[in-house]
Design a protein that fits this description.
Elements lengths: L7 H20 L8 E5 L24 H15 L3 E5 L9 H10 L3 E6 L6 H10 L3 E5 L5 H8 L4 H15 L6 E8 L7 H11 L3 E6 L21 H17 L7 H12 L11 H4 E4 L4 E3 L8 E2 L5 H5 L2 H11 L16 H11 L1
Parallel strand pairs: 1-2, 1-7, 2-3, 3-4, 4-5, 5-6
Antiparallel strand pairs: 7-8, 8-9
Length: about 350
């Protein structure tokens, strides 16, 4: 069966570029090409999550269907085999997403996306599977409807999200497309996390990935003091994280490695600290926003805009080198950096051999 999430050519390309990233980091050069590609295709969203500020942003002009297709094609020529994650806002406010994914598939580009799941109908689920999408992560923040709806800001969303998951599960049978749940760990849902893992197991969903609460846009180091979503009982959240670590050892449904949960404990204790380890985002990441801006880090200025230049032209430019130097000495508060766990190259190879 064709593997939608990975291919041998993609793995070889990843290995080659990952091998060069250390040298690229040391020299502030774009010697290696990016290994994590993200398209933020829209800032529009149909819901109002408490933990997210994106839906509060003003409307940004978006690249057209044909412009996104050109981006995909041009990157394929430059990068070789790559995988892109499509994100928003809510990605499915754009009606052209299955068409864009199909174009990527036809050009040997692997795809994945993140969605809140509320707009997925039976027909859209069928179109998503037929497009060749590799994986989809659906945001679920509570096993209880009232918890999920409270966090997500609108009553009735839990029912719509779980219906969307059911449509996807039915449409994806035998296709090889991976369906996973993505959950933000925060105070209102911390006592439902273990039940969510069991629910994922029971429904036959492929996996669940946990992300700790953090600022989406805000760079204020005191952000966590201003939200009721953050923890006031570290002992309790650490106990729950230990339960997730134990569940991880028993089940393959949890996608986070145990080491990442250990890092979350440190992060929840001191969320005000800047990133402890070196930030590789200037070397590893390529992010293109809905208006065509080219970024490595979203919190740094763009390297250019696709309406005026190309990624290939700016990736190793003087502006890019200066930006990488700034990232090395960055003082912008970026709390997710405290818990990001990056596997070393050897473990990535062994993981690919084992799981494909």
């Amino acid at each position: 069966m064709h593997k939608r999430n990975k291919s041998l050519s993609w793995a070889v390309n990843q290995f080659k570029n990952r091998s060069l990233q250390g040298l690229s980091y040391k020299l502030d050069r774009g010697i290696s090409k990016p290994t994590r590609v993200i398209f933020c295709m829209t800032l529009r969203c149909n819901i109002k999550c408490q933990q997210c500020a994106i839906w509060r942003l003003p409307y940004e002009e978006e690249l057209t269907t044909e412009q996104w297709k050109k981006v995909i094609y041009d990157l394929r020529k430059w990068l070789g085999p790559y995988r892109v994650q499509l994100a928003g806002g809510e990605i499915f406010v754009r009606k052209d997403i299955p068409e864009i994914i199909k174009f990527a598939t036809d050009n040997d580009v692997l795809t994945g996306l993140v969605s809140n799941g509320t707009m997925i109908t039976k027909k859209l689920a069928d179109d998503i599977v037929k497009s060749g999408l590799g994986y989809i992560h659906i945001s679920v923040d509570g096993i209880k409807a009232e918890t999920h709806d409270h966090i997500r800001g609108i009553p009735g969303l839990h029912k719509k999200t779980t219906a969307g998951i059911d449509y996807l599960l039915d449409a994806a049978k035998g296709s090889g497309m991976s369906i996973c749940v993505a959950t933000v760990i925060m105070k209102p849902n911390m006592h439902e996390l273990v039940d969510l893992v069991n629910w994922v197991e029971k429904k036959g969903i492929n996996g669940i990935i946990f992300n700790p609460l953090g600022p989406t846009i805000d760079s204020d180091p005191d952000w966590y003091k201003k939200t009721p979503l953050f923890f006031d009982d570290l002992k309790e959240i650490n106990r729950i994280l230990d339960q997730l670590i134990e569940l991880k050892r028993k089940s393959g449904k949890i996608l986070n490695p145990p080491e990442q949960f250990e890092e979350m404990k440190k992060y929840f204790e001191k969320p005000q600290l800047l990133m402890r380890d070196k930030c590789m985002v200037g070397i590893t990441n390529l992010s293109i926003t809905c208006n065509g801006d080219i970024h490595t880090c979203f919190k740094m200025p763009p390297l250019g805009n696709l309406k005026e230049t190309t990624v290939e032209a700016v990736w190793d430019s003087e502006k890019a080198r200066d930006l990488r130097k700034k990232i090395k000495n960055c003082t912008i508060h970026c709390s997710p950096g405290n818990f990001v766990y990056r596997r070393n190259l050897l473990s990535e190879v062994l993981r690919y051999i084992k799981y494909g």
